[in-house]
Amino acid sequence: MNGGDGPSSYARNSSYQRGAIEAAEALLRKEINMRLDLTNHSFSSFTIADFGCSSGPNTILAVDIIIQALYHKLSSSLPNTKAPEFLVFFNDLSHTDFNALFALLPSQRPYFAAGVPGSFYGNLFPKAHLNLAYSSCALCWLSVLPTELTDKTSPAYNRGKIHYTGASAEVAQAYSCQYKKDIKSFLQARSRELAEDGLMALIVPGVPDGFLDCQASTGSEFDLLGSCLMDMAREGRITEEEVNSFNLPIYYPTPKELEDIIRSNGELKIDKMETLGSIDAQDTMPELESRVLYLRAVLEGLIRTHFGHQIINDLFDRYALKLAHSSFILQPQTHKSIMIFVLLTRFHDI
User: Fold this and answer.
1) What is the pTM of this model?
2) Which residues form a coiled coil (predicted)?
């Protein structure tokens, strides 16, 4: 994600992700109050981790919601007990702009804060260390891209495209297999780190059950961006080989797909799983410019690393022109993405 607080930063262009947190707020408060058992424990400290926190204000909002819910739970179930000290760990990859994130932390806050750099697809904390684990809009990022996407001899060679939407079934299958491996790794790591009576709440970007990858080919934001790159390749601004070797490490599961992966883990049980209420991109990003900046904030770093910074402005100018005539703007009801809320607990002590 773009760091800092500039015009194309993630901090200024993540209203859609904020909408997901706000849509989950009531459910998150309810589930913490109903399912978190504090009566059999004497907590001197309570640890919370936000996995894939990024660098904008959304993670601060999420933590505030969680802390408020915990205070409500404590006051209602243990009114005469002193509240524990809350420690919040903000996790993301090491190149995340943690400085920008920490600058957003309120000076008077009811918790201690620390940054934990590293991939959440591996262990980041000691065994049974976390009382509450949380992640929002992060479990759509792959740890690595399938190698067959850039293998010219593979049926999954993704020529002329930068994503699996609208691509061959082999490409979509390669993405799906990698996603399954990654989520299994994530769940294994968290099942070790989660305390015996801990909770894990996830908000996962996805697509509805029965959704076909080919349905996203017309008007897809990623397809539009890929077509802009191919236009630039035909004009000699970049090479076609550069486009063929570039794929976005993003995958959107269906609820059924995600449920099957979680159930195969065997160490965490699903206490609740549902699709959040409608999060309308047209409401959270009503203007064309906001839609362009949203995608730029998320993808610019990947594009700049692969193609160089010289093409960025031209690329997103082209993208804006195509987006203005796409179904994402002209027919917002065709937007197929959803947010999946999942609440998990441990089956037994690991």
Assistant:
1) 0.91
2) none
